[in-house]
Amino acid sequence: MRAHEAGALHGDIGHRGPAWLRPPADVNALVPQLWPRQVERGAGGALTVAGLDVRELAAGYGTPAYVLDEDDLRSRAREFRDAFPDVDVYYAGKAFLCRAVVRMIAEEGLHLDVCSGGELATALSAGMPAERIGFHGNNKSVAELTRALDAGVGRIILDSFTEIDRLTALARERGVRPGVLIRVTVGVEAHTHEFIATAHEDQKFGFSLAGGAAAAAAFRVIDEGVLDLRGLHSHIGSQIFDTSGFEVSARRVLALQAQIRDARGVELPELDLGGGFGIAYTTQDDPSTPAELAKRLRKIVDSECAAENLAVPHLSIEPGRAIVGPAVFTLYTVGTVKDVDGLRTYVSVDGGMSDNIRTALYDASYSATLADRASTAEPLLARVVGKHCESGDIVVKDEFLPADVRPGDLVAVPGTGAYCRSMASNYNHVPRPPVVAVRDGRARLIVRRETEEDLLALDVG
Ligand SMILES: Cc1ncc(COP(=O)(O)O)c(C=O)c1O
What is the 8-class DSSP label of residue 194? Predict the structure, then answer.
């Protein structure tokens, strides 16, 4: 262990990176599962996406910028669609939503999950058929619920007794009978970060199964007879690789389904298993394909239904990250390179925690590569950091970049499609980056860059 004035812990915090991270044989090589499918290192050494050189993108749109490989997103949506042919696949819009993506998702035959008035407005304004929208959220306002009813949203996922009463009153007033699901907290500890695990008992989402709230919620909705209870819903968390959590969750939720049948004589026709399917952020992640997931989930549901003597319900799933996450990389320009006391090299880029909060928030891992050229220099263990006033403003904790990385270089960080632009902030009054979609060698702006004028326009004091 290295001695350090600030204490022993500071001496060895990762200055060599995690044990699995080894200097690459070729620092220019791309690890295919981390990148959008049409990203390559072109003959000149710079990255290309769908045939377009990232230097051209940087020149045309500036940096930082989120670059979306449109065919990659579409092909992942289609793979879910094809692997789950008799299942409603809801794209979880919270991962990333804009009108162009709504249209892509709709064209590829998916449904859409929204969880706020703003996401609903985006979906409707892009022409998503309302009956293909599911509306989530633990604190939907009366205004949001009213809008959902008026639009004819297909499913509203109930999350509290207050909401049941609210929606019941609104539906009664309007003489409508919306389709609803009950979000059940099944008590599964998903093997993921605490803040993205959502089915353990002590958290804000859903009705607890163990405490009896989920059954009471179902009975209330059935007994009132105003809302059309279509089924139960369970989402156990995000970035999950191990399907055993889904197995426990399906078992528990189907046991509740059987309890409801026995108590009220109603066999609910639908079951939503949520999303959360993991993607590769580093070489350590080994995600399942949609086909593998479909096979395993189907087997789990079939055997649990057989055990409870239930007909297999119509299923839905809600993948977000697994569709958009791998389809995007963020392109940054290097501003400074700082070697700190021989401890670590900090490569500062022109964005940071305002365009990717996941590293600071979830201790998430990412990778990075030099994007505008290939290099013959040795690999150097670096930390890619942003320009914000926080020492936790880290984009990539540990990555080997070529030792000659220098100001003006472009650096690309893959896997930033999900929960990056959608969680972006204006911290330090940094305008949020644009999203540029690339297809067949052509780029198109789908979300423009925010400007200082946009920021000042909000500041009306
Ligand atoms: C209810 C629900 N469904 C689906 C998702 C999507 O998760 P992921 O993007 O990890 O697939 C989330 C994520 O928070 C969620 O809360």
Answer: G
